[in-house]
Structure formats: structure tokens, C-alpha cells
């Protein structure tokens, strides 16, 4: 019963997402493209936070590297878009391996500080290395050529790009979901609950945490590769810690205990941002207040609170 | 030779200023077991309050040095009683998230109140000149920062090792339940320590104001520097904070002079090296996951 209701809701949502360009204006096509990309970014973050229990404050480093990688490949090599995305994933995986190697072996407090510090290190490099990254202006002026796989798509068309993003995010989400459901995902959950016991069971906690960190970084890099052509620029802001705050807030907003939580959080976040920034420029202030309230009163997020409420009503 | 002398003095004033800020972070961590992400924001608030007191209200620098940190400490008491009290009994992730939210709120509030532009605070007349030392001319204000830094260092050492209040703080840091069983009002200690940490951050902010331009990003820079200091020195260690701050001061003092191209990267390289060989910091222990 419960799964049938869930499957039905999911089917309606997916059908609705596919139909967006035909039923809504360009404005909402852009909004939904952003929701999907940031949703993937937040879901990748939740693999290490919600599942493994590692709170990273530097996840934007991988997102930003992904964006820069795609922008650089498009400018200098003009390779097909799919190949750009693979390069983005490779670059962020490598960066995640380096930062993760130094960070995952320490406890939660150290991990939080180190990810923030290394994230800002990447930001400082992008800011200073003008000859490659064009400094504070960022990289712009790249155009999307072919998609790859012999498909003839006009990626410059926002509707087409939206469908491409939808397809890639859907595939990535399924892969992430399968990872979470696998025995590897179960071990990650066990590490969150009790690392000592996992380690007594003969498993190397550090290796599992590092692998989870690299997977999360890789998917964040994919999201970054998708955001660069969407924004038409790869700028240092994508690497700043205020960008790292976004997946944290999305995951908390949607609910860290659920696979789809970050996607729902991303939708709430982007819609709220669009709505609030028409009234005030101080979006970060609102963001801080919402985060504080969610942490104190609604730690399970919108989805968790809704499910609790539904269970209560059904009794 | 004169270049090295100037770089050394420069390292010392940066290092001691960093020590004042990082030791506040360390004390709060020791007793409350939380890392206050908003520590840099409180430092920035101290600097901006000093700017308002000096440039707008026309007060002398000395009055601002006393009043601005008290103002920030009062705000810290409010933050502790209104927000942080909810999460003391929870998982450590919640305290990180909440102080991060406070950081966002303070940062944006500063931008709203004082604007995104740069503000400048003049050092007091008495300290605005320069003196000849070690064969080169040194700003008097740098020497003042070094003297105040050393005084605070001695004061903190005395507080923790020779006074009753310091012993109570150390007891609460070692074992809060045990301290409570010995009739210590730990709630008061927790609020007091959080306010004291904020006071130290704000003292650092007022001291930094005449040396650096004030902008809404100054808190972010200093919190990352403080993190590097405690990672190098070892979290929760008082001598570690001093050692880490001096090392980072030297990196800045000499790196800025001799390796300007990679200056911004050097602190991170230092931190990565310490992490590779001593993951718990030079003086820390027990940080393994």
C-alpha cells in the first residue's frame, strides 16, 4: 500500500518534470533546471552527511571544480558536452581524494574545520591563478557544441538543455540511490551510527569514509559540470563557502534521513530564494534564520516532519 | 638583516593577534565541546563596533577597546541563552550547523548595517608614529599589539593556573558531570565561557581595526586562519594555540615578503604538512575518528 502510493506520487512528479517546458514559461524552465542541478549537488552532499555522518563545509570545492573543468574544456578543446562532464567528474574525484585523504581520518569537529579550510584554499587558488581561471571575473564566453553519442541536440535551447539535465540528473540519482541501497551504503549508515562497532567488525572505517567522500565529490563535480553552461560562467563564487552552505541547508530543509530529501530541499530552497530576493537583497540573512530554526525545531526536515505528521493523523 | 628583523616583528604581531582570537575558539571548544563557526563573525563585530564608537560617536580608541568587546560579550550571552541552549545535549553536528547559521546571520547583518564598502579606523595619536628598532622603522601600533598580546597571554595563563575561576573552567572542561556533582553551576560556566570567548574575539577585532581595512569578509578570513592555527597547534591545547599562531604568523610575515606569488597558499600547505605527519596537531591528542 505504502510503496504503491509512493510510486504513484513519484510517477506523477516525473511526468510533471518532463512536461515542464510544454506547460510552463521559460522562467520556470530555468527555475527547474536550477532545482535539478542543485538537487543533485545536495544529494551528493547527503551521501556523506545524512548517510555517513560526516558534516562537510567545503562541498562547493567539488561543485566549483566541476564547473571550471567543463568551462576550460569547452573554451580550449571544444569537446562534446558528455566528455566535458566526464572530465568534470574526474577532476573532482581527484580533488576529493586529496582533501579526503587528509580529512576523513579525524573526528567530526576536525573534519568540519578541515573541509572548510581546504574548500577556501581551492577558492583562493581560483581567485589568484588569473592566467588559467581569469581571477574574480571567472571564465565566460564558452559555447556548447555537440552533445556526444552522435545525438543531434541544440543545447543552446533552454528547453532542450532542461531535458538533458533532467535525464542526466535522473540517471545520477538512480546510481546514487543504488549506492545507498547496496551493502556499501548499509556500512556507511552503520558508520554514522557507531563507527567503533563497524571497526570491531573488521572493517576499515577510514577507507569507507574516504570512498564515500570521493563518490560524493564526483557527483558534486557532475552537478558543477551541468551548472557552468546553465550560468554561462564559472566564477569563484561557485567555490566559496557560502556555496557550501547551500547543499547543507537543502539537505536539512528536505530531510537528511531520506534519499529524496535533498531534492525536495533544493526545490524549496530555489523557490524560496526566487520569491524572497524579489523583496530583499539579504537572502543570506533569511537563509541563516531558516537554518537555525530548522536545526533547533525541525531537525528531520520538511519530508521527515510531514511523514511524522501523516503517521500521527493515521493513528 | 633589517629585512629579517622587520619580518620577524611583523610575524610576531600577526601571530599574537591570531593567538588572542584562536585561544578564544579553543577555550569555548574545551568547555562547551563545540566549534564556534561564528567566532570570526564576532571578531568582525568587535571591529565594526569600534569603528562606530570611534568614527561616529567620537570616542577615543581606548574607550572602544573596553566597550566594544563588552558589547559583543553581551550579544554572546543572548546567543547562548536564546539559541545554543537547545543544542548542548544534542549531536555535535547540530552545534556546527547552528553556529554556522549564526555566522550567516551576523555576516549579513553587518552588511546591512554598515554596508559592503571598506571602513578605516585610525590608530590613536599616541601610537600612530613609528620607531627605530632592529635597524628598521616599525609602526608603534605593531609594538602595541605585541605588548597587549603578551599581556593577554600572561593574564590567561594566570587565570587558568592560579585563580579559582580558572580552575572551575578547567574542571568543567575535563568532566562537566563531575563538576556539577561538586556543586559547580555548570550552566553559568557554559554561558560565561562562551561570552569570554566572544570577548576575546572582539578584543582581537578592535586591535585589528587600525591595522586592516574593515570589510564584511574580514570575519571569514580570520575564522579560516583560526582553524588553521588550532589544526596546526592541536584543538583544545592552550600552548598549541600559541605555537600554531606563531607558526602562522611566521608564514605570513616571511611568506608575504619573500614568496608573494604563493602567499595565500602557504598557510594551507603548512596545515596539510602538519596533518600528514601529526594528524592531531603539534600539541593535541585524541582526534582520530
UniProtKB/TrEMBL annotation, chain A:
Transmembrane region(s):
5-24, 30-49, 56-74, 80-102, 109-129, 160-180, 207-228, 248-272, 284-307
Keywords from UniProt, A to Z, are: Cell membrane, Membrane, Transmembrane, Transmembrane helix
> Per its UniProt record, what InterPro entries does this chain match?
ABC_transp_permease (IPR001851), LivM-like (IPR043428)
**Which Pfam families does UniProt cross-reference here?**
BPD_transp_2
Q: Which PANTHER family match?
A: ABC TRANSPORTER ATP-BINDING PROTEIN, HIGH-AFFINITY BRANCHED-CHAIN AMINO ACID TRANSPORT SYSTEM PERMEASE
The cellular location(s) given in this protein's UniProt record come to:
Cell inner membrane
Q: Where does this chain mainly localize?
A: membrane
Segment forming the signal sequence: none
Task: Respond yes or no to whether keyword Protein biosynthesis is given for this record.
Answer: no
* An annotated GO cellular component: plasma membrane
A molecular function annotated in GO for this UniProt entry is: branched-chain amino acid transmembrane transporter activity
In its UniProt entry, what is this protein called?
High-affinity branched-chain amino acid ABC transporter permease LivM
The gene that this protein is the product of is livM
Membrane topology annotation: Multi-pass membrane protein
The answer on whether this UniProt entry bears the keyword Repressor reads no
TrEMBL record, chain B:
Lineage, top ranks = Bacteria, Pseudomonadati, Pseudomonadota, Gammaproteobacteria, Pseudomonadales
Annotated protein name in UniProt: Inner-membrane translocator
Question: What are the protein's UniProt keywords?
Answer: Amino-acid transport, Cell membrane, Membrane, Transmembrane, Transmembrane helix, Transport
The species is: Marinobacter algicola DG893
Q: What family does the entry list?
A: Belongs to the binding-protein-dependent transport system permease family. LivHM subfamily.
Biological processes, Gene Ontology terms = amino acid transport
Q: How does it sit in the membrane?
A: Multi-pass membrane protein
Query: Main subcellular localization, coarse class?
Result: membrane
Q: Where in the cell is it found?
A: Cell inner membrane
InterPro entries linked: ABC_transp_permease (IPR001851), BCAA_transport_permease (IPR052157)
Molecular-function GO term, any one: transmembrane transporter activity
Q: Per its UniProt record, what Pfam families does this chain match?
A: BPD_transp_2
Amino acid at each position: 500500500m505504502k510503496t504503491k502510493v509512493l510510486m504513484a506520487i513519484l510517477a506523477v512528479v516525473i511526468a510533471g518534470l518532463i512536461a515542464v517546458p510544454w506547460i510552463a514559461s521559460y522562467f520556470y524552465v530555468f527555475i527547474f533546471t536550477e532545482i535539478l542541478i542543485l538537487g543533485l549537488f545536495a544529494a551528493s552532499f547527503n551521501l556523506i552527511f545524512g548517510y555517513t555522518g560526516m558534516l562537510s563545509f567545503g562541498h562547493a570545492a567539488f561543485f566549483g571544480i566541476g564547473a571550471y573543468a567543463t568551462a576550460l574544456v569547452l573554451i580550449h578543446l571544444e569537446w562534446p558536452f558528455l566528455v566535458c562532464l566526464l572530465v568534470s567528474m574526474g577532476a573532482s574525484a581527484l580533488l576529493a581524494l586529496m582533501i579526503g585523504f587528509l580529512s576523513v581520518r579525524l573526528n567530526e569537529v576536525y573534519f568540519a574545520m578541515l573541509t572548510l579550510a581546504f574548500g577556501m584554499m581551492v577558492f583562493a587558488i581560483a581567485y589568484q591563478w588569473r592566467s588559467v581561471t581569469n581571477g574574480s571575473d571567472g571564465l565566460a564566453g564558452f559555447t556548447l557544441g555537440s552533445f556526444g553519442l552522435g545525438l543531434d541536440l541544440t543545447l543552446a535551447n533552454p528547453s532542450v538543455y532542461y531535458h538533458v539535465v533532467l535525464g542526466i540528473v535522473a540517471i545520477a540519482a538512480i546510481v546514487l540511490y543504488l549506492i545507498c541501497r547496496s551493502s556499501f551504503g548499509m556500512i556507511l549508515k552503520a558508520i554514522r551510527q557507531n563507527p567503533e562497532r563497524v571497526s570491531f567488525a573488521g572493517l576499515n572505517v577510514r577507507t569507507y569514509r574516504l570512498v564515500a567522500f570521493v563518490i560524493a565529490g564526483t557527483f558534486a563535480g557532475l552537478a558543477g559540470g551541468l551548472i557552468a553552461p546553465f550560468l554561462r560562467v564559472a566564477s569563484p563564487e561557485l567555490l566559496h563557502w557560502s556555496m557550501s552552505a547551500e547543499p547543507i541547508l537543502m539537505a536539512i530543509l528536505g530531510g537528511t534521513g531520506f534519499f529524496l530529501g535533498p531534492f525536495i530541499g533544493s526545490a524549496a530552497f530555489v523557490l524560496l530564494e526566487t520569491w524572497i530576493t524579489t523583496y530583499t537583497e539579504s537572502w543570506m540573512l533569511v537563509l541563516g534564520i531558516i537554518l537555525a530554526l530548522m536545526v533547533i525545531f525541525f531537525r528531520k526536515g520538511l519530508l521527515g516532519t510531514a511523514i511524522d505528521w501523516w503517521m500521527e493523523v493515521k493513528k | 638583516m633589517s629585512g629579517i628583523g622587520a619580518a620577524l616583528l611583523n610575524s610576531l604581531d600577526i601571530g599574537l593577534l591570531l593567538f588572542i582570537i584562536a585561544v578564544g575558539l579553543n577555550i569555548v571548544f574545551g568547555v562547551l565541546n563545540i566549534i564556534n563557526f561564528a567566532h570570526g563573525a564576532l571578531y568582525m563585530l568587535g571591529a565594526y563596533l569600534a569603528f562606530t564608537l570611534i568614527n561616529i560617536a567620537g570616542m577615543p580608541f581606548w574607550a572602544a577597546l573596553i566597550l566594544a568587546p563588552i558589547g559583543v560579550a553581551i550579544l554572546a550571552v543572548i546567543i547562548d541563552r536564546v539559541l545554543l541552549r537547545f543544542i548542548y545535549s544534542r549531536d555535535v553536528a547540530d552545534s556546527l550547523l547552528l553556529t554556522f547559521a549564526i555566522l550567516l546571520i551576523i555576516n549579513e547583518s553587518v552588511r546591512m548595517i554598515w554596508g559592503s564598502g571598506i571602513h578605516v579606523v585610525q590608530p590613536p595619536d599616541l601610537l600612530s608614529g613609528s620607531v627605530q628598532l632592529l635597524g628598521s622603522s616599525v609602526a608603534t601600533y605593531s609594538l602595541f599589539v605585541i605588548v597587549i598580546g603578551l599581556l593577554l597571554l600572561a593574564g590567561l595563563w594566570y587565570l587558568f593556573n592560579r585563580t579559582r575561576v580558572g580552575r572551575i573552567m578547567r574542571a568543567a572542561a575535563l568532566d562537566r558531570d563531575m563538576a556539577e556533582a561538586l556543586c559547580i553551576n555548570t550552566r553559568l560556566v557554559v554561558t560565561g565561557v562562551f561570552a569570554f570567548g566572544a570577548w576575546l574575539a572582539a578584543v582581537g577585532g578592535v586591535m585589528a581595526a587600525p591595522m586592516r581595512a574593515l570589510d564584511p569578509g574580514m570575519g571569514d578570513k580570520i575564522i579560516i586562519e583560526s582553524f588553521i592555527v588550532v589544526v596546526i597547534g592541536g584543538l583544545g591545547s592552550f600552548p598549541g594555540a600559541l605555537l600554531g599562531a606563531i607558526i602562522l604568523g611566521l608564514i605570513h610575515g616571511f611568506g608575504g615578503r619573500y614568496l608573494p606569488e604563493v602567499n595565500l597558499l602557504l598557510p594551507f600547505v603548512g596545515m596539510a604538512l602538519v596533518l600528514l605527519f601529526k594528524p592531531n596537531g603539534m600539541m593535541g591528542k585524541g582526534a582520530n575518528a
